[in-house]
Structures are given as structure tokens and as C-alpha cells.
From TrEMBL:
This is Molybdate ABC transporter, substrate-binding protein. Gene3D superfamilies: Periplasmic binding protein-like II (3.40.190.10). It comes from Deferribacter desulfuricans (strain DSM 14783 / JCM 11476 / NBRC 101012 / SSM1). One of its GO terms (biological process) is molybdate ion transport. The keyword Metal-binding applies. The keyword Metal-binding applies. Molybdate binds at residues 28, 56, 165. It comes from the Bacteria.
Amino acid sequence: MVKKVFIIFFLLCSLGFTQDIYFYVASSMSKPANEVVNNFNKVSKNFKVVLLTGGSGQLLNKIVFSKKGDLYLPASKTFKDKAVKLGLVVESIDLLYQTPVFGLSENGKKKIKSFDDIVKKDVKIALGNPKTMALGKIFEKIKLKLPEDIVLGIEKNCVVKAVNVAQIVNYLKTNTVDVGIVFDSVAKVHGFKYVSFPERATVKDVASVNLLNISSNIENAKIFLKYLLENKGIFKKYGFEVIKQ
């Protein structure tokens, strides 16, 4: 009898667990996404949303290898396009505009007064790994629009290529680096002063939320997606530029 009760309990728990949906979000958007998820989980009775954060490329790799996931919000169109090319996307909705800038640490504020100062000899820069994070990919595009001497100066001063924006934020907060590439919204959220790229080199990207065809709970995923879009003002509260539908 005890054994039967245990089996029934296990099956019920398993059924309940499978109702949850997995929402993969790039680290740069983790704060507003976390607030949206927490708010939803407080009112949702039938299922919960599990938030997973990291570099856009890291997350896509997890989705591909685990074959588990319901919604994917990368920080760049590049990784959205990769997901589409892999045949993972059922529906894609543009959510935010993303503008890269160079965030400054406390030490960095003393050294950097303008964009040209970032190539000074004593400046330490954190860039992004283009294989794992959107900002790494975006900087590859920005480099093509900058003078060669500036690009060489930036690369010479680069001391680390982070796997996600959370690492860069930590490097800035701990003064491990003077300058780190982040989105302007991330700089605002964390209170970093920042310098913008020259207008000719500025690349504004788009972050899209993607419904995945590997979802085991696509109806639940659609319910949360609707809630997310209805509450995207939370992203605006954190300094993000929300795209009007």
C-alpha cells in the first residue's frame, strides 16, 4: 500500500513539474525578467516559470543540448537568427532595442572623460566573448565602423573577454577593469557612468522573445508570453527601450 501511494505521489509530482515552463534570458535583462517572473508566479495557480540566465550563446547551447526550453530571450538579433536557423522558433516578437556602450568603474571614471580616452596605455578593458554573449558579436560589427588605430588600441587594452554581461558588471563593480562593454540599460540599472560609441559606429540591436518548438507545454508558454508582453513596462522601468507593438 505504501509503495502504491509513493508511486502515485511520484507521478503527481512529475506531472506537476512538467507543467512548469523554462524561460531562458540573457544576463543583461535578468533584473526586469526576474521581476516579471516573480510577479507571474505569485498569481499563477497551474504552473510556474523557471528563469535561467546567462550569455545568449551559452543559453542557446543549453537549449540545443538539453532539448528543453519554452521561451528564449537573447540580447541580440544574431542569436535569435541562429535559433531560427536551427529550426527552434515557432514565433518571434521584437521586445527591446539594445544600445552598447562602455561602462566605467570607479577607477575608470577617473581615467575616462571621453571615448578617445579608452585607448590610453593604462586603461583595462573588458570585452565580450563573441561565441557566448551578444555584446561580443555586436562589438565585431562596431569594429568595422571604427578607425583602425582605435580598434587596435581597444584590443591592446583588453584584459578579459567575458562569457556574459554579469561577469563584466562584476569586473566593473570590483574595479577589476576600468571599462567594460555593456548595454546602456545595464549601465543605468547598476548606476555606472558610461561613454557612448561615436555615432558613426553605434550599432542598435534588437532583443526578441522567442517561442520554442521544443516546448513540452506550448499552451502554458503562450500564457506566460502574453503576460510578459502585457507587462513589458517593467523593462522600461529598468531603463530599457521597449519596442511598441
